[in-house]
Specification:
This protein has helices spanning 2-16, 109-116, 165-168; strands at residues 23-31, 45-52, 56-64, 70-77, 86-93, 99-106, 120-126, 132-133, 136-137, 141-144, 146-147. The chain is of the alpha+beta class. It has a single domain (19-148), classed as Superoxide dismutase, copper/zinc binding domain (Immunoglobulin-like, Sandwich), CATH 2.60.40.200.
Amino acid sequence: MTFKILAPALLAAMAFAAPVFAADYQAGLGPMPLDDETKAVIAGRGDATATSDGKTLTVKGNFHGLPSNATEAHIFVSPVAGMPGKQILDLDVTKSTSGTISGNYTLTSAQATALRTGKLYIQINSEKAPDSYPWGPKGTLWGWIFPAHETVGANVPQQGHWFLPQLDTPSR
């Protein structure tokens, strides 16, 4: 008798509950590493937010201050946070020095795991960015997609360990 009463209530609760992997992410977009040769053609800033339910990923962001028009934007996967990786998803991008990026994707299980463990990043390329650098691929702005966190001002130490999600995410 109790089962007949509790079962519908349990099913209703499960139907309206948030997905287990639902999460918010963010990325601060900044210039690629600069040297004397590239500092004239690489500049700008931006930010992006991403949401995922473990199966889909939605990305929205903006950028400004590029020294030449954006040509393309992508999401890359890397073996570890901070290391260049390979392109996996294309973003829609405004082909201007300021604009927006966006995209909506169905993730593979490997891509979902990479997202949760801090191995995905956004890269925006521009017209004047060199095709390649001795130390890595072309690009103007990069930003690692990490779990959403409080962002502090300039010259203020960031508290906590938000920047190492690969160490904080339980294996799923």
